[in-house]
Each structure stands twice: as structure tokens, then as C-alpha cells.
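Sample 3 of the quickstart, ligand thymidine-5'-diphosphate:
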Amino acid sequence: MSRRTIAFICQNCGTSHNRWQGKCDGCAEWNTLVEEGAAAGIGARPAGPGKPPRKGRLFALEPLTGETHDAPRLPSGMPELDRVTGGGFVRGSVLLMAGDPGIGKSTLLIQATAALARAGHRAVYISGEEAVAQVRLRAERLSLSDAAVELAAETSVEDIITTLSEGKLPRLVVIDSIQTMWTDLIESAPGTVTQVRGSAQALIRFAKRSGAAVILVGHVTKDGQIAGPRVVEHMVDAVLSFEGEGSHQFRILRAVKNRFGPTDEIGVFEMTGLGLREVTNPSELFLSERHLGSPGTAVFAGIEGTRPVLCEIQALVAPSSLGTPRRAVVGWDSSRLSMVLAVLEAHCGVKLGGHDVYLNVAGGLRIVEPAADLAAAAALVSSLANAPLPADAVYFGEISLSGAVRPVAQAPARLKEAQKLGFARAVIPEGPRGETSDAGLTLNSVGMLVNLVSDIAARGEKPRRNAPKNQGEDG
Ligand code: TYD
Ligand code: MG
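Result:
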């Protein structure tokens, strides 16, 4: 006879404890333990009273070589979405679409489901959060009503799987959201880590068996109160993160994990009154709000995945009244900013110790490339010296700790995009001329950061009325 045991599972990280305690041993979070049936964890078999233990079944082991075929894909017909998934949804795979509540996950997925249904595939949208009427209303507003999407408002995983296994198997199943799903096999309340994991597992089994592409929607809660979808990240084939800032209309879809494609591509969307619109040329979007001729802004020619993206980097350097000046950065790595500031101080004589420094990447983009160093440095010095940078220039280059400007990958693609958008010059690292010489732009190569700093400071000198003295320049 098996005895039913009780465990206390952390809702933040999934660590199991024998008794209740205030603080989780695994992640050190407070008040996250919830009592759950212990036999219900991941990999546990259905706990039924008096069931005899099952004898294992023999299965064949296979060599690494053998018949393989490309993962069959199901393009969604939305190029920005397909770019991020790597060419479409893979049959039999499970994808997690994670994002803050209200960012537009349901909107994006109903649009994708409708696009697939219009292409003649059986596409099912199951909402555990909204009533059918609500989903219909939304579809109507997005003018998708004519698409043959099959809708349901359901939360029981067993019911869903039984229904979907009837008749022709669906090609795409959207489950909105995994936090609202529950399975009979587990006794915990819906939304707990164990339920989320158990439900995801059942749906993953369904995907593998049926060959349908299953998309799980997962809300990311910042305070970790409700089980985050993080606990299923390792079980699914791909994790896409849908990001954006409340104040901006732009939404960025990013692959965090992808077993069948690249993870560095981004898809850019704009939230309009008629749903999400795909933005095919993100550079134009990110540069659309530029204020030409104001000091402290520089245009960075970056690469996101395989495509060049131009964006504006804004800096504000202002005298500080605090003992320890503030350093705040949005859209870029704060340790990278510290490094650039240190190099400016140590090698270029730019004194920033008494100044607050704010750096922002316009449009809600998040840059991870070190190639943005030069643009950030240019924006910082421009703000400090009150010297606007030329409006028709783009910047890219990595800064080393010695103050040298180092070459970065894919320079020709960056320059080409800049030229396409009407820029006339580029400030770039010194390097082999050959590949960048026919760019159609005036190239201004800098070997040491200090040279760029003195150039910018010199520009600030001419119209100077109340600009700071002796700052931002040394050599
Ligand atoms: P939604 O897709 O419901 O977000 P999620 O599923 O990620 O929680 O989108 C919610 C927001 O999107 C809501 O605040 C309103 C806005 N929205 C529009 O601006 N236009 C539209 O056409 C739609 C459908 C939503
Ligand atoms: Mg939703």
C-alpha cells in the first residue's frame, strides 16, 4: 500500500521540502511554499489508490546515424513571427510564449491561428482566461471572423486532449494560458508549480503523439507569487519572449530558446487599434522619434540576428547633487556602461565623477552587442560637452579597456543599412579597408576613443555659450 505523502513545494523554483518553512532553501524566497501531494511531481506516474507498481516495458535503442528529415514546418504567414521561430512552427513541437500580462500574447496568437486557418489548416484556440464570446469579440475587432478557427473556453487538460484527439488531428493548438490549466492526475490547485508542470507535460505528450504544434501561453509574474512559466522552460522545444514597454506601441518578439532554429533573431510588431502590425523595417521605426540636432544622441548601427537594425542611443550627463552620482540605463547592460565610463575617465580625461549619467535606447529595444560601445560613448560625450553630433552619422565599434576602438562583425551590412536610410557618414573602428570601402558613405575611422572625444568636444566649442568648461576634452 502506498502512503499518500505531503510535500511543500516552492512556487518560485519548484524545490520540495518535507515540512513548511518560511524561506525556501532553494531560492531563498519567502512565503513561497505551498502544500501539495508529493507523488505528483514531475515524472511521477498517476497516483491511484491500490495500483500495483508497473513492470517496465522493453524499448529499442537507436544509433546516432540513421534516417533523418528536416523538421517539417508550418509557416504562420506572419513573416516577423516566422523569422523568430526559424521558419514556422515545427510539427510535434511545443513552444512557450512568455510575456507580461497585457503585452499582447493573446492578440498575436489569435492572429497567427487565424492566418493558419485561412491557409487551410485545422487550427484550435483554447482559452482558459476568456469566454468564447470575448475571444470572438476580439477576433471581430481584428477582422478575423471569417477565419475557420476552432474556439473553446476550457481548462481541463484531459478534456482538451480527448476532444482534440477526435477526428482530424489539428495542426496548431494554442493554449492560453498554461497557468489556468489543470489535470486530474494532480491534486494541487490550478496555477501551482506542480499543476503547471503536470499540465504542460500532458500537452507535450499530446504534441509528440499527434504531430500538432502546440503553443503554451505563459504569464511572467514579476513577484513570483503565482508559479511562473519558468518551470516549464526546460521541457518545451522553444521559448519566445514577447516584450515591450507599456508606453510604447512597439513589441519585440525574441527567441530565448529554440531547439529548431536561431535564438538571436527578433520580430518587431506595433500594437495598433487593429491588433499587432508587423514592422518589416525596424530601423525606420526606432528612428522615427528622433529629435535632430539635440546633444546626447547618437545613432547606433546594430545587428539583431541576421538583420541590421539602426537605433538611437540617448544619454544625459548632468551635474549631480548626490554623494554617489546616479547611473541609470535602459535597454543596455549597466556593467557595459560602467566600463565605457571608466575608459572615458582613465584614457580620455573625461571627468564624470560628479555627474549623474542616464543612458536610454530609444523605442524599447534592448541591445546586447558590445558594438554599441562607441555610439554610447559618443552620446555621453556629446551630452557632457553640449555638442550635438552630426545628424547624418551612424556609430559602431567595441571599446577595449585600453581605450582602443576595436572592429566588430558584419560592418558592411551595418553600413549598407545606414546608407539605405539616408545617412551620409559612419564613425567606425579602424580596420581592413577592403570590405567597407564601397559603402557609399563617408567613413571616419577612429583608432583610439580619445580622438573621437576631442572631435566632439571641438564641435561643442564653437557655438558654446554656457557649456561646461574644460570638460570632455583632454587630448
Ligand atoms: P492581450 O493580447 O490581451 O495581452 P495578453 O494576452 O498578453 O495578456 O492584449 C492586451 C492589450 O492589447 C490591451 O491592453 C489592449 C491592447 N490591444 C490593442 O491596443 N489593440 C487591439 O487590437 C487589441 C486586440 C488589443
Ligand atoms: Mg491573454
